[in-house]
Amino acid sequence: MDRWRASVLLAVIVSAPAAATVSAVIALPSREQWLSFAILAGLGLIQEETCTAVERTRRLFAVPMPVTMTSVWMMAAALTLPVSLITALSFVLYGHTFVRSWRGTEPVVANRAAYTAAIVTWSAAAAHLALFLGAGSIERFDVAQPRNTLLAILAVAVYMVANLVGAAAGLAIRGEYRFLDMIKRPGGTNLVACNLILGVLTGMLLLERSWFLAGVALVAIALHRASLTRQVEDQAATDPKTGVRNSAAWQLEATRELTRARRQAGQCSILMIDLDHFKQINDTYGHPAGDRVLWQLGHVLRANARAEDIPARFGGEEFVVLLPKVGAPEAAAIAHRLRAAIAAMTVEATDTLDQAVHITNRTASIGIATYPDDGDTVEAILARADHWCYVAKQHGRNRVAGGSAPPYSVAGEEGQRDELG
């Protein structure tokens, strides 16, 4: 990590406890607030300790951007505690998680844990501010009033937005650009929202000093354990170098789609995409640069395909895209759009001398095959798409072949197809 990124990271980490210190100097927490802090810290530590094995498993499986249950306790803290104790709770919980679950599972995790704790602190502090700008003080926050219910909903939204902004900034600081991928994960976003709503309920019960708080801890433990299965399944289905489906997961989804098309007498299509002259990239710039090209290609496929389409890495520099409910003409149009997007992509990478390079003018050859015209099994349709991809390469590359595309066609400057051969 270069100096300016490290400086920004350090500034964010230091700013949270600094703000907490100022808050504590301005107004010392009351005895009731200290008791609420102790209850939330105790419940949070019990939940985290119970789920230590779950968290270590997720980290060892390298689940990207995993959702934890800490937001339950932090949202409750936003409802019941001053900023100084919100900060203390965040660093207590994340400190415990680092020591018991994260340490040793990935390199340089200490600064990430501290940055995460700081961002969560600022998110909870922002939610706290949104709540009490309207309610005036903790004592006046009567949850039975509809107005305060709306304030609680606003606080949840503020927390989520602040947390997403912080996560995006952290990814940018680390030189990773997976923010849109995180937003597109509805399961993860929904789980965060559920956690925050559970946190609001926890704060309400805490204000009433209800014994039902113990039940909240049980719910949080159950949700934490359940989330592992979904996240690990999702990770197991994803190709780590490209962010799209891996071949095995794609084959299962393609089989299901073909079964649907057969039952409904419908259609579906498959694109076989092969990056042209990929070996030259590895030979010229090195394999890490080649990996960046593969990742960017995965991003281009996700960004330019339809929401229901399923791109996957088939092997090496070969990709496939499943096009549900699509016949040959529409498949050809989608293939040309993807071909043009690939040709326009720019990849920022470093070469073997650690010099920054901009890789451009990459092209791909695409083959199209459709059910039922080209076969009635996934294997048969794939073989036909692969055949047309080979034909496209043999006739000049940067071509689309098969389906209803003109033989060995490529979109021209005006978006028209030029027939070759």
Give an overview of the whole structure.
The chain has a five-stranded mixed beta sheet, with helices on both faces. Residues 1-5 and 412-421 have low confidence and may be disordered. With 421 residues, the chain is α+β, with helices and mostly antiparallel strands. The chain contains 15 helices and nine strands.
Question: What's the tally of helices?
Answer: 15
- What is the average per-residue confidence, as pLDDT, rounded to a whole number? 78
- Tally of extended strands? 9
Rg on CA atoms, Å? 26 Å
**What's the SSE pattern?**
HHHHHHHHHHHEHHEEHEEEHEEE
Strand content: 5-15%
How much helical structure, as a percent, in the residues?
Answer: 55-70%
Shape: elongated
Sheet with the most strands? 5 strands, mixed
Residue windows where pLDDT falls under 50 for at least 5 positions: 1-5, 412-421
Arrangement of strands in the largest sheet: 2-3-1-6-7
**Classification by helices and strands:** alpha+beta
Distance between the termini: 51 Å
Keywords for this structure?
alpha+beta, five-stranded mixed β-sheet, disordered N terminus, disordered C terminus, 421 residues, 15 helices
Summarize this, please?
By secondary structure, the chain is an alpha+beta fold.
Secondary structure elements and their pairing?
Layout: H1 3-26, H2 31-50, H3 52-60, H4 70-80, H5 83-102, H6 109-135, H7 146-173, H8 179-183, H9 186-207, H10 213-236, H11 247-263, E1 268-275, H12 278-285, H13 287-304, E2 310-315, E3 318-324, H14 328-344, E4 347-350, E5 356-359, E6 364-371, H15 378-394, E7 400-402, E8 410-411, E9 417-418
Parallel strand pairs: 6-7
Antiparallel strand pairs: 1-3, 1-6, 2-3, 4-5, 8-9
